[in-house]
UniProtKB/TrEMBL annotation, chain A:
Highest rank taxon of the organism: Bacteria
Native source organism of the sequence: Paenibacillus phyllosphaerae
Keyword set includes Transmembrane: yes
Membrane topology: Multi-pass membrane protein
InterPro entries, per the entry: MetI-like (IPR000515), MetI-like_sf (IPR035906)
GO CC aspect terms: plasma membrane
Transmembrane segments: 12-38, 75-96, 108-131, 174-193, 205-223, 265-286
UniProtKB keywords: Membrane, Transmembrane, Transmembrane helix, Transport
Full protein name: Putative aldouronate transport system permease protein
Principal location: membrane
Biological process annotations from GO: transmembrane transport
Presence of keyword DNA damage: no
From TrEMBL, chain B:
The keyword Signal belongs to this UniProt entry's keyword annotation: yes
Assigned keywords, A-Z: Cell membrane, Lipoprotein, Membrane, Palmitate, Signal
Organism: Paenibacillus phyllosphaerae
Protein name: Putative aldouronate transport system substrate-binding protein
Signal peptide extent: 1-25
């Protein structure tokens, strides 16, 4: 039965084979590496001969007083990201969509993409130049206006705001691409019909545009939740200093400090694995929720 | 059509063939190296190594100095240079991959990945071989003991002067203000104050500060030196037969207060917590003092001169505090060369490599790697040392000292400032305070040390910038103890007791 079906569609299966192999070889096979989270990995002993230690590294992680702090910092930054950054590309895409003049639309679109191609080092460098107390633009301005200098870069209070703002500045434009693509797929007849019925632009937006991209928004949100605890390493590492480490140390920077600088490969793998598991659980939950409300979900 | 196709096939075939040949050639080459026991039997020794570079530009691959070294030692050297700032992380990642070059420098011989590697048998123990080599056998027992891991020697330390830290001060500013170089902590404060308020650069603007500081990793550059001037210990203090970490001593608190005063009175750069290299402040001509390895003096003077042509750097090494004149001793070495068993499989090859290191320590090679080739990198005009001005020729000796093992037979050439530096290194050695815990290893420190030291380092910055008070500082110390610090103290003291009992 199965064989018959396989034979009938043999060409289709043959065509899917390279894709399957790609995932098996490059995505699934390397996953055996996560076993070092359950071992005391020593490079010289190698993967198989390193002693098996079970959940030792997870015990250490969860009993570490740092864990609560790390989790809180990562969680809050991730939450800010979803609350403040995630809706922004949708908003910009909607605004671009309303632009009538084709040329100015194209120009704006291209301009907002540019920050995405800058590396974090550059973005953080720009932020430093704006915010430093030693002749930074914003502090000079504040002083001229009769205010006092604000220590943006070396304070707990400003850290999350700056991080989230930097992400917004860098990635908003790039994030609009998918939404614009979804928007271009909306049938123009719908708008025409709505206009005939006397709907103004706001009404059209609410009843036609938003429903049209709703499933795209939900899918992207679910995918984003899969990386919920990935706050990104470079940006935060570059912004960290002694005065903001309390709120700034996140899992990604901790893994670097412990795993690379201190050479505790197994422990840092355990931390990374924990992060991925949280992401997986969130994706499954969000997907279920989406389906419950009659949306498509990602699987 | 058919012809082009066939031609293409042939081309592909030829390419494949060359590829296979190249591969087999590599394979044979490797085997040849592994099995060869006697030096000189089959061409020069192939030696790959990974070294830190402290310069923005690396030594060129075809450097004449490097060629000369290869000729003198009958080797073929392949060096991969890694910037010093990322060297430790890069090395850790390389160790994790297990694919190490035949030798490399471990800048922190007690880093956890090195100690763990040693304990799993990753590196050759070379202690027992040293006596067979005329130069290597002269290595200092004390320093060998300091680099030892569990009582055994796994690497060749690179000898450096014992105490190299001191004050690099703008001599021209002192002259402008009619001040004498400071001799005590109080005088130091007065000079720094004058640098801040009395317009030492005479441009009529209050745009100068006394002391430039920046972060070296998580630590404040120069802090450990002021701590020792203040009568504090070098990392660990021996008190009533017990070792106490520096940050739990009274002198540490005194030093914190001193820095806080400098910060509050705007005598140090206010943004120091985000300054990676404090020398940049100095080199902009904005600051009057930099505290670090006095070897820096020459570079700082040259770079400051680009902005302020009259700038002159003076060196001061003796500052007297509550316990008199003292200075922080380094380890007497800067990193050590290690030889991994993963890439050097036989004892024969190990001995060949040790022979290379022994030859590097010969007098001629020591001076070659320090000054370059006479007639190229420098000339001797009736005994007067004249370094070349040609940047291309100069570049050939870049980081040459990274190759050096022993430095006992280096001739003292150099500019006035360089000669003074060397002289002050010798003077420093007479008043140097060593770290009494240097030879000891604490397993807790290996596991968590860096995370823990961050607690103290961060609290130090916070105290100076005024975001925590003395109670907050005490809290940080308690947090350090609870997170594993008291275990480190225990383990270090246990090691100390073991040694004291012998």
């Amino acid at each position: 039965m199965l064989i018959a079906r396989l034979m009938r569609n043999r060409w289709l299966y043959l065509m899917v084979l390279p894709g399957l192999l790609y995932f098996l070889i490059f995505k699934y096979w390397p996953m055996y590496g996560i076993f070092i989270a359950f071992k005391d990995y020593q490079p010289y002993l190698g993967f198989w001969d390193s002693p098996f230690v079970g959940f030792k590294h997870f015990d250490r992680l969860f009993s570490d007083p740092n864990f609560i702090v790390l989790f809180r910092n990562t969680f809050i930054l991730a939450l800010y990201n979803i609350l403040f950054f995630f809706p922004l590309p949708i908003l910009v895409a909607l605004m671009l969509n309303e632009l009538r003049h084709e040329l100015s639309k194209r120009i704006v679109q291209t301009l907002v993409y540019i920050p995405h191609f800058m590396s974090w080092v550059v973005v953080v460098g720009i932020a430093y130049m704006f915010l430093t107390t030693e002749g930074g633009f914003i502090n000079v301005l504040l002083e001229k206006l009769g205010g006092e200098k604000v220590t943006f870069l070396v304070s707990n209070e400003w850290f999350r705001t700056i991080i989230t703002t930097e992400v917004m500045w860098k990635e908003t434009g790039w994030g609009t691409i998918i939404f614009l693509a979804a928007l271009s797929g909306v049938d123009p007849q719908l708008y025409e019909a709505a206009r005939m019925d006397g709907a103004n632009r706001l009404r059209q937006l609410w009843h036609i545009t938003l429903p049209a991209i709703r499933s795209t928004i939900i899918i992207l949100l679910i995918l984003r939740l899969g990386h919920f605890l990935d706050t990104g390493f470079e940006q935060i590492f570059l912004m960290l200093n002694a005065m903001n480490r309390e709120v700034g140390e996140v899992f990604d920077t901790y893994v670097y400090a412990v795993g690379i600088s201190q050479g505790q490969y197994s422990f840092s793998t355990a931390v990374g694995l924990f992060k991925s598991i949280v992401g997986l659980i969130l994706v499954v939950l969000a997907n279920r929720l989406a389906k419950k409300f009659g949306e498509e979900g990602i699987y | 059509m058919v012809r082009t196709k066939r031609k293409r096939m042939m081309n592909a075939g030829a390419l494949l063939l060359t590829f296979t040949l190249a591969l087999t050639a590599c394979g044979e080459n490797n085997q040849g190296n592994q099995s060869s026991g006697n030096p000189g039997e089959e061409g020069p020794l192939q030696l790959t190594m990974m070294l830190p570079t402290y310069s923005p530009e690396q030594m060129p691959k075809d450097s004449a100095v490097l060629k000369q070294l290869e000729a003198n030692t009958n080797t073929k050297l392949t060096v991969s240079w890694v910037p010093s700032t990322t060297y430790t992380d890069k090395l850790s990642a390389t160790v994790a991959s297990g694919e190490l070059p035949k030798t490399f420098v471990a800048l922190e011989p007690k880093a956890s990945y090195i100690v763990n590697g040693v304990r799993s048998g990753m590196f050759w123990e070379i202690g027992p071989y040293l006596q067979d080599y005329p130069n290597l056998s002269k290595m200092s027992e004390i320093v060998l003991n300091n680099v030892s891991i569990d009582g055994k020697v796994y690497g060749l330390y690179r000898q450096r002067d014992l105490a190299r830290f001191g004050l690099m001060m703008r001599q021209d500013w002192l002259t402008n203000l009619g001040l004498q170089p400071p001799k005590t902590i109080d005088e130091l404060y007065t000079v720094l104050k004058a640098f801040t308020t009395d317009d030492p650069d005479q441009n009529g603007k209050p745009d100068t500060i006394g002391l430039a500081i920046g972060m070296q990793g998580n630590n404040i550059a120069g802090f450990k030196d002021i701590l020792v001037y203040m009568g504090g210990p070098n990392e660990w203090e021996l008190k009533d037969g017990k070792l106490v970490p520096a940050h739990m001593t009274g002198a540490y608190m005194e030093t914190l207060r001193f820095y806080k005063r400098l910060y509050d009175e705007q005598m140090i750069n206010q943004d120091f917590a985000i300054v990676q290299d404090g020398r940049s402040v100095m080199q902009k001509g904005q600051a009057g003092l930099w505290i670090d390895n006095m070897l820096d003096a020459k570079n700082i003077e040259e770079n400051t001169k680009k902005v302020v042509p009259d700038a002159k750097i003076g060196l001061i090494n003796r500052i007297s505090g509550p316990l008199g004149e003292r200075t922080r001793a380094g380890a007497g070495y800067l990193g050590m060369y290690m030889i991994p068993k993963t890439s050097v499989k036989t004892e024969g090859e190990l001995k060949q490599i040790l022979t290379y290191f022994d030859q590097v320590s010969e007098k001629d090679n020591q001076n070659l790697m320090k000054y370059g080739i006479e007639g190229k990198q420098y000339t001797l005009d009736s005994g007067n040392y004249l370094p070349t001005e040609d940047p291309k020729v100069k570049a050939e000796i870049t980081d040459g000292n990274q190759f050096m093992i022993l430095q006992d037979q280096v001739v003292n050439y150099g500019t006035e400032l360089e000669k003074q530096t060397t002289q002050l290194f010798q003077d420093n050695a007479t008043i140097a305070v060593p770290n009494p815990a240097a030879p000891f290893i604490s397993n807790t420190e290996i596991e968590k040390g860096k995370e823990l030291s961050k607690i103290i380092a961060d609290a130090t910055v916070k105290f100076i910038m005024g975001s925590i008070d003395e109670a907050g500082w005490q809290q940080a110390v308690e947090q350090w103890q609870q997170s594993g610090g008291s275990k480190i103290v225990e383990e270090i003291n246990a090691e100390y007791a073991k040694l004291a009992a012998q």
